[in-house]
Give the backbone structure.
Amino acid sequence: MAAGAENPQNAENGRRLKVVLLGPPGAGKGTQAQLLSARLGIPAISTGDMLREAVAAGSELGRRVEGIMAAGKLVDDALMAEVVRDRLAKPDAGSGYLLDGYPRTLPQAKTLEGILEESGQQLDAVVMVDVPVDELVRRSLLRGRADDTEEVIRERQRVYREKTEPLIGYYRERGLLREIDGHRPVDEVTAHMFATLGLGEGVD
Ligand code: AP5
């Protein structure tokens, strides 16, 4: 078992904590990452947000990924490795982070492991936020992002089941997986996040 996995509290009550948020599209990973980031003082790193910013800026990266995102498919692993490697090298990531939307495939999980190993680090926990599929579709339709049409939402769910769900077993085997019921009010989910990460002020 990875050091720190058994007791993430070791990570100075949230500081230097390196956590992956896993779960289907619409589960609330981004919402929770922002809330935890504000309370823990570590960055929430969302690959989806980074790619959307690149699209909005019209950068080369944005032009490469725009059509893929609009179709609800995954950007290829090699390109995502570059994006994540650059982001994790920024100074603010040195104090820990909440990764939202990465990794999403087994090769991405191995890339992340490699990046961490290079600096003698490892993940503290992987929190899986689960929500029934009908609720996922309802939430995404309500949100109405550019890739939130019913057809693309269903495609993102399909891709999740095919490519990302295997990560649940991968991280369970490594003793890192924590599971959270995301089909509850936002503040209750946050409280359980804190509790599951062994951070004191969890359940208010
Ligand atoms: P990404 O932005 O990661 O989209 P996603 O996986 O579809 O995730 P969402 O943002 O839809 O869901 P979320 O779980 O963050 O939920 P949220 O908090 O927003 O990726 C977009 C695209 O980028 C991908 O399709 C792919 O093309 C590409 N991409 C990104 N990363 C990649 C990677 N690693 N590899 C390859 N391609 C990649 O909440 C959803 C809604 O529900 C919100 O309106 C929110 O207000 C609401 N809500 C949240 N919590 C609750 C609650 N408890 N109760 C009620 N409503 C809630």
Notes: The chain has nine helices and five strands. Residues 23, 25-31, 47-48, 51, 68-69, 72-75, 80, 100-102, 104, 108, 139-140, 143, 156, 182, 184-186, 189 surround BIS(adenosine)-5'-pentaphosphate (CB under 6 Å). The chain has one domain: 2-193. Residues 2-193 form a domain with the Rossmann fold fold (CATH 3.40.50.300).
